[in-house]
Design goal:
Largest sheet: 2 strands, antiparallel
Structural class: alpha+beta
Mean pLDDT: 85
Number of helices: 3
Shape: globular
Number of strands: 2
Number of domains: 1
Order of helices and strands: EHHEH
Helix content: 55-70%
Radius of gyration: 16 Å
Strand order of the largest sheet: 1-2
Low-confidence stretches: none
Strand content: 5-15%
């Protein structure tokens, strides 16, 4: 098990980004790990207890997103250069 504490502002950032990138999938996974006595929209910090298999899913989503961003940067860097 892992723990992750997010502030209300950090959770609002997930809401703002929404389903762009993989943040919507990560937020959905985190919502499944929220303590029973808390709501995603609560004020203050929330500490999530994350099972290992969920942590691996979050890690895979982050790596996938990182590869996508890196490929985009590489493509942008090669535009206009002689081939």
């Amino acid at each position: 098990m892992y723990t992750l504490t997010l502030t209300a502002d950090e959770r609002r950032a997930f809401d703002w980004v929404g389903d762009r990138y993989n943040s919507g999938k990560v937020a959905s996974l985190l919502r499944d790990c929220i303590p029973e006595d808390r709501e995603w929209s609560d004020d203050g910090d929330i500490t999530f207890t994350i099972p290992e298999h969920i942590a691996w899913e979050i890690n895979e989503l982050a790596e996938e997103e990182g590869r996508r961003i890196l490929l985009g940067m590489l493509r942008a860097g090669t535009q206009g250069q002689a081939q």
